[in-house]
Task: structure prediction
Amino acid sequence: MPIDNFAAMRQSIIDGAPDQAASLAKQALAQGAAPLEVIDQGFVPGMSEVGEQFAQHKIFLPDMLASAEAMKAAMGVLEPELKRQGSERPMAGTVVLGTAKGDIHEIGKTLVGTLLTAHGFRVHDLGVDVSGEQFAAKAREVAADVVGVSALLTTTMRGQRSVIETLDREGLRPRIKVIVGGAPVTRRWAEEIGADGYGKDAQSAVALVKSLLDKHAVADRAGAEAHIVCG
Ligand code: B12
Result:
């Protein structure tokens, strides 16, 4: 994919232009580009720039919202293609995913879910603003292997800890593994709250879930436990 197209994609997010973003995404697919490359190299850099401008008070909430709408328009084109690529794979495991209580950021979490689906995992996406109890109830209902909790705010990261505490309290761990991610989340935080793993992006999340489930199988046999970090 030419650099010019990536620059135009990035700009469509900064401009908050959903039609332009969707049309660039369609063009890229028509030219045979890989959807994940288009997301990571074209559109996500626009979101990062918007985040920086917001932090520096150069833009305000409505602008960030417009950019999010543009990002969602692009994802609306690219995510079905990502999912389609994974539809023929055998079932690899079940993941319950959501964004922590009090947090409505959904774009990164949804991308993680799409990529896991593309790699053959059954994903139950609980959406945003999800409590520990909601995570636990769904994990029990679908016999989840992994629970993934996203947090984009420093204030909602503690919701990740409370999901772990709830699963512990309800006796669902260590059988169910908990992974965490989101822009402010670090490997150190994951270790501090006793998560089973941390992934810095959607690709790392897939690698992480795969290795946790492999390790899980080994641990079941050896009575050991695993803590993994990807990315
Ligand atoms: C878009 C956006 C919004 C949109 C969200 C729209 C939506 N439908 O999602 C709107 C406008 C609603 C919004 C609101 C707010 N936002 Co906002 N937002 C952003 C922004 C610009 C981009 C986020 C994004 O979509 N990135 C693109 C995706 C692809 O990346 P990602 O989310 O990081 O996800 C990747 C990885 O983190 C990882 N990952 C994510 N989740 C998970 C989960 C697991 C399990 C794993 C393994 C991996 C993983 O994989 C993903 C894919 O690669 C960020 C800036 C930034 N750099 O993050 C600010 C940002 C997160 N927001 C911020 C703030 C302050 C707010 C508000 C409080 C603003 C306000 N005054 O009201 C509100 C909070 C609302 C709430 N209660 O949640 C701050 C947070 C500061 C902080 N550290 O706490 C940021 C960092 C901006 C800034 N620099 O100040 N926001």
Remarks:
- The beta strands are 93-99, 121-125, 146-150, 177-181, 197-199, 228-230.
